[in-house]
From TrEMBL:
It is an enzyme of class 2 (transferase). This is Aminotransferase. It comes from Frigoribacterium faeni. Belongs to the class-I pyridoxal-phosphate-dependent aminotransferase family. Its EC number is 2.6.1.17. Its cofactor is pyridoxal 5'-phosphate. GO terms for cellular component: cytoplasm.
């Protein structure tokens, strides 16, 4: 995240997408779909565009989206929210994360995350002046060790930032870990911030459990999500957060000086998406699961040791059986070797764990079937 001079460096996603553009390789690096959003969502954006909704929306977000978020949380998880006080619309989940950390973390406060972690977490903790403590996800299933989780907390812990389903590993938290996060947050008086942008992208019959539904969690949890992944609209940057009204107001105070507001024509469109019938959500997860299977099978046939992806856009593959022990080096050469771009897991790690995970590569499978088939057949040339 930091260059040799200690400055923030360009993100791995920009670097890898530029590599794909330069070499013409298939981009399984940056996680974005090559499909359009569903027709009702596109129609609602067009209607808003020609319907006079082109000026600043209200600071908390447009009522239509605030209400749709509250209805969505009630429909899928039984969570009751007051849309006027307990929901806030943001410029993607990224701004929700930024505003939340800037609002809650003072200089020297500690923020606990798992590791590997989505790269923005490290950068945003740094921008807030916080200290980043990480808990390794270990083993083929990428699970945290309960003792290591406990050891990451201290009296200076202000926030525990959880990402479930998890980028980059594709793992889903187990109930025991969720319960321990809530217990530790109480014990150390920390706020739980939970990034659930992949909440609808779970596989093999799994159902998402928001951490705020655990006993004693809602009163200290900020839940973050986004329309980007659920509706294949990553460029629209419509996100939101929900939680106790006092926390949401503190975060709004920061948010108003970041973007102020955003996306007036896309807010009603994402609201229309959130109101699609249950079948739509189930069908898109099933569709993505088929793509996961296609890429996972292709990677295994090419000689990678493929980890089980339980959710998200991503699958992790170990290149060690192919004789590649430095995934960062492999990823730089992969366009030449196989015409494919992936991201080394070390890009989501800090020093110690980067070495342990040095042969792991993250591939995105949120791509058209024909693209994944082509990638699989090109990767076969590696073995
Ligand atoms: N959190 C995670 C875990 C992500 O993978 C991403 C991006 N794909 C984001 C947050 C950012 O979401 P958004 O594009 O809505 O800002
Ligand atoms: N979240 C996406 C990924 O992990 C891309 C986000 C980005 O480009 N910043 O690939």
């Amino acid at each position: 995240l930091l260059d040799d001079a200690g400055r923030l460096a360009p993100t791995i996603f920009a670097e890898m997408s530029a590599l794909a553009a330069r070499t013409g390789a298939i981009n399984l690096g940056q996680g974005f779909p090559d499909d359009d959003p569903p027709a009702p969502v596109l129609d609602a954006a067009r209607d808003a565009l020609y319907g006079g909704l082109n000026q600043y929306p209200p600071g908390r977000g447009m009522p239509v989206l605030l209400e749709a978020v509250a209805e969505h949380q009630a429909r899928f998880y039984g969570i009751g929210l007051d849309p006027e006080r307990e929901v806030l619309v943001t410029a993607g989940a990224t701004e929700a994360l930024a505003a939340t950390l800037l609002a809650l973390v003072d200089v020297g406060d500690e923020v606990v995350t798992f590791e590997p972690f989505y790269d923005a977490y490290g950068a945003l903790v740094g921008l807030a002046g916080g200290r980043h403590r990480t808990v390794p996800l270990r083993g083929p299933d990428f699970r945290p060790d309960p003792d290591e989780l406990r050891a990451a907390f201290s009296p200076r812990t202000r926030v525990v930032l959880v990402n479930d389903p998890h980028n980059p590993t594709g793992t889903v938290l187990d109930d025991e870990t969720r319960r321990l996060v809530v217990e530790l947050a109480h014990e150390f008086d920390a706020t739980i911030v939970t990034d659930e942008v992949y909440e609808h992208l779970l596989f093999d019959g799994r159902v998402h459990t928001p951490i705020s539904t655990l006993p004693g969690a809602a009163e200290r949890t900020v839940t973050i999500s986004s329309g980007g992944k659920t509706f294949s609209a990553t460029g629209w940057k419509i996100g939101w957060l929900s939680g106790p009204a006092d926390l949401v107001s503190r975060i709004l105070t920061v948010k108003q000086f970041l973007t102020y507001v955003n996306g007036s024509v896309f807010q009603p469109a994402i609201a229309a998406g959130l109101r699609l019938p249950d079948d739509h959500f189930a069908a898109s997860a099933a569709d993505l699961q088929r793509r996961r299977d296609l890429l996972s099978t292709g990677l295994a046939a090419a000689g990678f040791d493929v980890r089980d992806s339980r959710g998200s856009y991503f699958v992790v593959a170990d290149a060690a059986p192919l004789g590649h022990h430095d995934a960062a080096d492999l990823c730089r050469r992969l366009p030449g070797l196989a015409g494919v771009v992936g991201v080394p897991i070390s890009a989501f790690c800090r020093s110690g764990l980067a070495a342990e995970y040095s042969s792991l590569v993250r591939f995105a499978f949120c791509k058209r079937t024909d693209v994944l088939e082509r990638a699989a057949s090109q990767l076969a040339s590696l073995s």
